[in-house]
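Continuing the batch. This is chain 6 of the set; chains 1 through 5 are on the previous pages. Same settings as before, nothing changed between runs. Recording input and output for traceability.
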Amino acid sequence: MYALAVHGGAGALPRVPFTRAREAAYRQGLMQALAAGQRLLDADGCALDAVEAAVAALEDDPLFNAAHGAVLAGDGTVELDAAIMDGNGLRAGAVAQVGHVRNPVRLARRILEDSSHVFLVGAGAERFAEQAGFRLVDNGYFITPDRRLQFEALQQQLEQAGAAPDALAAALDEPPLGTVGAVARDHGGHLAAATSTGGTAGKRPGRVGDSPVIGAGTYADDQTCAVSTTGHGEWFLRTVQAYDIAARLRYGGFSLQAAVSEAINQRLSALGAAGGLIAVDHQGAIAMGYNTPAMFRASVRSGEAATVHIY
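Output for chain 6:
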């Protein structure tokens, strides 16, 4: 039995008019990503391949805050982070501050497969990408008209208010909507998780959130569960949130749903942190939790119909 879940971020709804047509586009994007992973699982593919395919599809969709369509940092460029983890053997790969790799999750996967390291950043990560045969793209490839308008509007607000540069991110809806992720269990019982993001809009260049950090934004262990998070990255880093879910199962005897509910509704909410997460356990149960107005999410299990939700 396989199980697969994807998310497209949690937070307030986008500032652009959220029409029925736009809602339909988000739903279609989530379902296409889900289908990309499900096709592999249907063919007895592994969970690691499924989460990579699902996240890569969301990275290519300009509606989401990952790769093409990512938010702009405070200097007007795009900095991308991603991670992937295999619950079979706890293998992992991660990248941060890359600005020329079309699909950061695929680079993270290559690090998992072909490097003795787990985490590469910036120019070093991109040199590894070139050596591995990736074709680098111009940073402008990632910038969409919507994101450019968002950035320019925010700059204007701050100039009028005389705000400091570090107020750039704080002036936006928090947490940022659009970070993407996927978790899966394959027919063999193996788990995997992947997460990709452009981070926080208007962030200080060089800022890295939880998404690429193993144990904070991404985690998978065949003995417990696979988790991908989205939301206030700084708080998810401080609480090591993805690993916290796995630890609740391993050491506390929690069910997956109980672990997710307590983490979101009690621990994170008590800290004033906003966001959500998706998780799948070693038995194929899926749990999703969030304490924001919306979380874009979809899921499917073998023999069951796929579902997609925003609210």
